[in-house]
Each structure stands twice: as C-alpha cells, then as structure tokens.
Amino acid sequence: MSEPFSDSLKEACGIAGVYAPGADAARLLFFMLYALNHRGQESAGIATIARGQAHLHKDMGLVSQVFNEQNLGPLAGHHGIGHTRYSTTGGSILRNAQPYLIETLHGPLAVAHNGNLTNAAQLRSELLHHGVGLISTTDSEVITQMLASPTIGENSPLARWLPSGEWEDRIAAFMHRAEGAYTLAILTRDALYAVRDPWGLRPLCVGELEWAGESGWVFASESCALSTVGARLVHELQPGEIVRVDAEGFHVTQGRKPEKAAFCSFEYVYFARPDSIFSGQTVHHVRQMLGRQLAREAPVETDLVVGVPDSSTPAAIGFAAESGIPFSEGFIKNRYIGRTFIQPGDQLRKMGVRLKYTPLRANLEGKRVVMVDDSIVRGNTAGPLVQLLRDGGAAEVHVRISSPPVRKPCFMGIDMSDQSDLIGGRMDVESIRRLIGADSLAYLSIEGLHEAIGSEMIGEEFGGHCDACFSGRYPLPLYGVETNGAKLVFAHALGS
To answer: Residue 263 pLDDT > 50, yes or no?
Structure first.
C-alpha cells in the first residue's frame, strides 16, 4: 500500500481481543480493528477458537480490504484476537502479518504483538540454535515460539525461560527474558491474555462488554476501539501486568516487577486517536494543552492559526485559544489519497502534498498565518505545506511544532531507527526554517512537552513518559540493536 506524500511517523501496530460468550468474536474484532487502523495499514488479521479448533484469516491491506462477509464467516468462536500492522521489525510481506497461530502441546496458541524487542536478535539466535524453526523475520514470531516451546534439557538456556506449567507461568518467564516495548494479545484454547511490558512503553486497555445478557471482555491498544463495540473502559494495564479473561471472569497478575514507567510520549503527540484515553486523559485534551504550551513558549503576531489536518488540529485549537488569534481551516485534506495501492507515478509524485492537501484561499488571502504541526521528522513535507499556504495567498507563514525536534532514533516500535533520516538530528532550527521557507520556526521544549502531558521532568527522571526520540535518554539499555545495517551498541541507557 502506498502513502507517498507523508512525513509522518508510523507506529508498529494495533492489537485487539474479545472474550464474549454468545457473541461473534470475529465480527466484533473487525470493528475494533477498523477503529485501530490508524496504527497500521500494511496488513490485518483475526484468529479465533471454537470448540478447540483454531481459525485464522490475515492478508495485506487495510482492515476493510482484508475482511469481507465471506472470510469472516468461517472465523467461528466467542473468543479471538486481531491485529493491524505497520512493519518495524520484519518487512511488509504476508508471512510477517499477524496474528501468529501455531499448535502446541497445550493446544492452539495465537499471538498479536505491538512494539519492538530490543534483544530480539539474541532471543532469535537461541531459538534457532535449539532447533526451533522460524518462517518470518519478526520479533513477534520469536515471542510466539518462546511461549510455545517445551523445555529442552536441564542445561539448555531454554530451560531457564520455557516452563511447562500454566500459560501465566510461561508468559511471566518470557517477560523476564524480553527487553523493549511490547503489548500482547494471546489466545489459547480456553482463555485470552493481555500483557504489557514492565516499562509501559506501549498502551493496552480492557473493557467490559454486555452481550446477550452476559458479561464479556475486550482488549485493545486504545480505548477508542472499546467504544466502537459498546464496551466500557474498566482497566488500563499497568507496566508488567498480565490480564486473563476466561469462563471464571477477569484476573490480573504481575508478570514482572515494573521498571520506571516510560510511556511513549508520541502516543499523545501523534499516534493515538483524539478520542482515546490514557491515564484518565483524552488525547484531544492533551494535544490542546501541547498547543497552549507552545503558544506560551513561542508567541508570534499573526492574523490566523491553522493546523495540518488531522492530528495537528487540536494543538492548533489550543494555540489559538491561548494566543487569542482566531483559528480557521487553512487546508482541505483528501483523506483517501494516502490509502491506495495505486502508485502515483513520477509526475504525480512530484506534486507531492498537492495531491493530499488543497489551500483554502478564502481564509488565507493576505493573512499572516501561523501553521501548527505536530512534528517534523524527515522534513520532506513541511516545505511544500508552507509553499501551499503562500500559493493560497498567505502574506506570511510562521511554523510552530507541538513537540520538540526529533533528534534521536527509536528502537521501541516506531519507524525511525536511522538517525540520518531525522532532520532534527542533522540541522539546527534556523537551518530547518530556511529549508522549509518559513518566516519563523519554533518547537515545543522537552520540559513543555512533559508539563502539557502531566509529567514533570526532574533532573534525569522521566516523569513516567519516554522522550528518547527528543532527548536521547533511553529508558532501557540497548545492546547490539540493528538499524538499517549499522550496529549500535549502548553501554548504558541514560545519556547514550
């Protein structure tokens, strides 16, 4: 699938799970994945279990392109999991699509994963050296095989982390070996499990669903997917938690002792849907606070505030409210051009963002405009957007970014593992301003980011949120991480 006109970051994926006696789990999962499709558009899949028999359908494309009435019908059962993917570890090919489904000594096992293991290469090597075959290049398959494999000899490295007991024991054993970002939806013959890494890097929540007079349970990366099927948010998984739902109800255990919380701050800035809730706050409200803080830190005298649709709109509204400058639409967005399998061709590609955005001349003519955007990552769309506003009649264009400069690579599930791709890591603010042709350019400070999302930065403390892509302060050690062929070895996390 092509999205050739975007400078946006991509998240690893969205996961969902359903345990609802009397319900058609696959149909519920379809609508939940539809609500999570913003987290990944490369592939989608659903796995269910009915009377001990597992069913799976997955393919490349959007959720609406992968599923139809014909292939949803065979996905029988009242419990199942789903996944929508953007590739970080492993390429965008069908064999890397999720969920992964295998048969084990303990019955069917399906796994859906959001995130990125920083020690995946080591774990993969251990599996291969002990005869465990792998068919994909993803860390998600490594997780699946770690959960499924039997103990291989008392002296085997696998014996330390692959117990033969209950699934909770196996999950906890995996958590003590895995490093990095992960949330998991795990499907077994009789139960559904949700798992969150001990740093809480990626989000996962649980909702209660009333169906046919019975209580059911749903998991999702974001609460917006719960609302889509009428479920009520009841629990956000805390770092290191395992949640099990089965015929006996809802159970929470601690799979691994929590580390210092480091929830990804980019979930607030860009990734999550505005109606999702994290730690009791709606994302839309936090984005408005980011805009307000930006207006306090980087005021500018203009006639109009515009946002870059859609993720930047709340920040632009907040900037306008704090500054007293009127907010109005400056762009009309074609919301379908970036979701097509048809390649645009060289001539159309040169038109770039003009295929995706059109300036609204009636609002821009003769105005001094401040354009609020959520981030500048690689720097290939900010300049064309500024030029579009000028072409639409803007007399001045000032750019304000509601996050700090993205200077460092991420290894926890975001597609920016090569620092050379990041314009904020290569150029200072003034150089970027000249490159994009703005009259002025300013970013939100790191301290302002944390203040807006409700966490204080004190010395080297994280305040509960990861800001590594802005600051270079990684919340966990990174050893032998591969990035586009170049090996990065960090002796320690902070200050690397």
So the answer is: yes
> Which of residues 229, 259, 289 is at a domain's end?
259
- pTM, to two decimals: 0.88
Mean pLDDT, the chain, integer: 86
- What is the number of domains present in the chain? 2
13 is a catalytic site residue: yes
Cis ω before 275 (30° cut-off from 0):
no
Of 202, 226, 259, the position where a domain reaches its end is 259
Domain housing 158: 13-259
Residue 465 maps to a domain: no
Tens digits of residue pLDDT in 140-158: 899 999 998 755 444 445 5
CATH number for position 329: 3.40.50.2020
Q: CB of 417 within 8 A of CB of 441?
A: no
Both 52 and 139 in a single domain?
yes
Instruction: Give the tens place of pLDDT for each residue, 94-129.
Output: 877 899 999 998 899 999 999 989 888 889 988 898
Residues 197 and 315 in one domain: no
HEC secondary structure over the chain: CECCCCCCCCECEEEEEEECCCCCHHHHHHHHHHHCHHHCCCEEEEEEEECCEEEEEEEECCHHHHCCHHHHCCCCCCEEEEEEECCCCCCCCHHHCCCEEEEECCEEEEEEEEEEECCHHHHHHHHHHCCCCCCCCCHHHHHHHHHHCCCCCCCCHHHHCCCCCCHHHHHHHHHHHCCEEEEEEEECCCCEEEEECCCCCCCCEEEEEEECCEEEEEEECCHHHHHHCCCEEEEECCCCEEEEEECCEEEEEECCCCCCCEEECHHHHHHCCCCCEECCEEHHHHHHHHHHHHHHHCCCCCCEEEECCCCCHHHHHHHHHHHCCCECCCEEECCCCCCECCCCHHHHHHHHHHHCEEECHHHHCCCEEEEEECCCCCCCCHHHHHHHHHHCCCCEEEEEECCCCCCCCCCCCECCCCHHHCHHHHCCHHHHHHHHCCCEEEECCHHHHHHHHCCCCCCCCCCEEECHHHHCCCCCCCCCEEECCEEECCCCCCCC
Question: Do 195 and 221 meet the contact criterion of CB atoms below 8 Å apart?
Answer: no
CB 36 within 8 A of CB 219: no
Please report, rounded to a whole number, the percentage of residues in the chain having pLDDT higher than 70: 84
What's the distance, CA 43 to chain centroid? 14
Question: pLDDT-derived band of residue 1, with 50, 70 and 90 as boundaries?
Answer: very low
pLDDT band at 484 (very low <50, low <70, confident <90, very high): very low
Residue tagged active-site, from 13, 264, 410, 466: 13
